[in-house]
Amino acid sequence: MNERGVHTMQKEYQAIIVGSGPAGAACAKALKNEGVEVLVIEKDKLPRNKTCSGVLFGQTQVLLDQYFGGLPPGDVYCDPKIIKAENILEWNKERGFSTYVWELPKDGQSFPQDFYNVWRSKFDYWLLNESGVAYRDGCKFNDYSIENGKVKVEVSRNDKENIDLYCSYLIGADGGESRLRPLLDPSFMKIEQVCAVYQAYYRFSDMGSLEDAHWYVFLEPQIGEVISAVSRKDDFLTLCVGGFKGRSLKKSMEDFKNLLAKNFQVALKDMERNEGCVIKMAPPYLGKDNIILTGEAAGMLYLNGEGMSAAIDSGYRAGKAVAQGIKKGGKVLEIYGKEIEGILNHMKLCVEKMHFFAV
Ligand SMILES: Cc1cc2nc3c(=O)[nH]c(=O)nc-3n(C[C@H](O)[C@H](O)[C@H](O)COP(=O)(O)OP(=O)(O)OC[C@H]3O[C@@H](n4cnc5c(N)ncnc54)[C@H](O)[C@@H]3O)c2cc1C
Questions:
Q1: Ligand 1 in contact with 140 (CB < 6 A)?
Q2: Rg from Cα positions in the chain
Q3: Could you give the ipTM of this predicted complex?
Q4: CA 256 to chain centre
Q5: Domain count, the chain
Q6: Is residue 95, in this structure, part of any structural domain at all?
Q7: Is residue 57 in contact with ligand 1, taking CB distance under 6 Å?
Q8: Residue 340 lies in a domain
Q9: What's the number of CA atoms in the CB half-sphere (13 Å) around residue 347?
Q10: DSSP 302
């Protein structure tokens, strides 16, 4: 119901995508390429922030070239623009520094070793606009039902007006805290392995012995069960800590700041902003009937949280599968399942080979 007590009815779309992150934008791009009429709905006002280190790893760059025709324009990047793979270092009290491998070759293909440092707010907004589709921000997905063979999508606009939208296919690209996934897959709410992540942007007077254009990671159980990291983005040192449910991440952040001050003489000043999110170690789940999930909502994430490539790739492939279903009447979930076999295999490889947990 809206403020006057009536639902606002809206036009029907062939596909509606929930979420304007990399998965949603890539899905939109694939659908648009195939001439499908699509609407993206996003709960936040755009451009929106996303808890993320904001690094475009090599595979992401290759996918951007393949699906979007190139890399983003200049204003999307932060300074330093490039972090070389060899400058991602793990530090340990006993062993000192060692190179930390963040990205593995996929299906025998190696990727560029210069990684790009971006602001997620700007990157995601660029990606969405590049898809060329219509979108509504401040528009939150609440629920869906099936009505006369169509998907009725219930959304609220700016937390006030309730609107019913209709579509043939509903695509959930609503991230790790998906609203759509538990409606299809109730086990999602019962997942035990949940990590919380807390990230803060500090002004600083001295980076101490930390070198610029480097990314430092720490696997220190006393700070958190999940990898901690520090790197520079423009005028800020970005500090990230994470742990399993129940750990106080405010305390972890204080411990991390102390470690950086004591061992590297880092001098931080005031905090500009902070953000956080949870990462559910959810198994892949692709959807049901005409409701498709993609990106992190579908569990598509390469450890160590190198998620943008999995999101872009799975999003694009979901869009292709839906377009094929609309145009040729194929079974979308079957087509999509085949399309993402390579992603699922790479996820398994990453779980085997990467180290992300400090315990
Ligand atoms: C601390 C941290 C650091 C990371 N660093 C990197 C990195 O450097 N490089 C990298 O590649 N990956 C990184 N990742 C992973 C990456 O951020 C995610 O994997 C990626 O953003 C997933 O993309 P997505 O499109 O699936 O979801 P998201 O980017 O989360 O987008 C989902 C969108 O859906 C919207 N939404 C949610 N619910 C609703 C609703 N009910 N209605 C409407 N809209 C909704 C959200 O507002 C959001 O805009 C990091 C993750 C974390 C936590």
A1: yes
A2: 21
A3: 0.99
A4: 24
A5: 2
A6: no
A7: yes
A8: yes
A9: 23
A10: B
- Find out whether the beta carbon of 141 lies less than 6 Å from any atom of ligand 1: yes
Residue 259's pLDDT band, with cuts at 50, 70 and 90, is very high
58 close to ligand 1 (CB < 6 Angstrom)? no
Compute the average pLDDT of residues 255-273.
97
- The domain spanning residue 15 has which CATH number? 3.50.50.60
Strand-by-strand arrangement of the 77-84 sheet:
55-56, 114-118, 77-84
Domain span including residue 313: 8-83+119-190+283-353
Domain boundary among 223, 248, 280: 280
Do 165 and 221 belong together in one domain?
A: no
Domain endpoint, select from 258, 280, 302 = 280
Query: If we measure between CA atoms, which residue out of 153, 55, 155 comes closest to residue 113?
Result: 55
Ligand 1 and 173: CB distance under 6 A: yes
Q: Please say whether the beta carbons of 254 and 268 come within 8 A.
A: no
Q: What is the Å distance from ligand 1's center to 21 Cα? A: 6
Residue located via tokens 């451009």: 47
> Beta partners for 13?
167
**From CA 90, how far away is CA 308, in angstroms rounded?**
22
248, pLDDT greater than 80: yes
Place of tokens 């101490």: 208
Instruction: Please state, as a whole number, how many other Cβ atoms lie within 10 Å of the Cβ of residue 226.
Output: 25
What lies within 8 Å, CB to CB, of 298 at 6+ separation is 172, 181, 284, 285, 286, 287, 314
Is the separation of the CB atoms in 220 and 259 below 8 Å? yes
Within a domain: residue 143? Answer: yes
If one residue of 17, 39, 42, 201 were mutated to test the ligand 1 pocket, choosing by the most ligand atoms within 8 A of its CB, it would be: 42
5 band by pLDDT with thresholds 50, 70 and 90: very low
Ligand 1, atom nearest to 142 Cα: 41
Mean of pLDDT values over 130-154 = 97
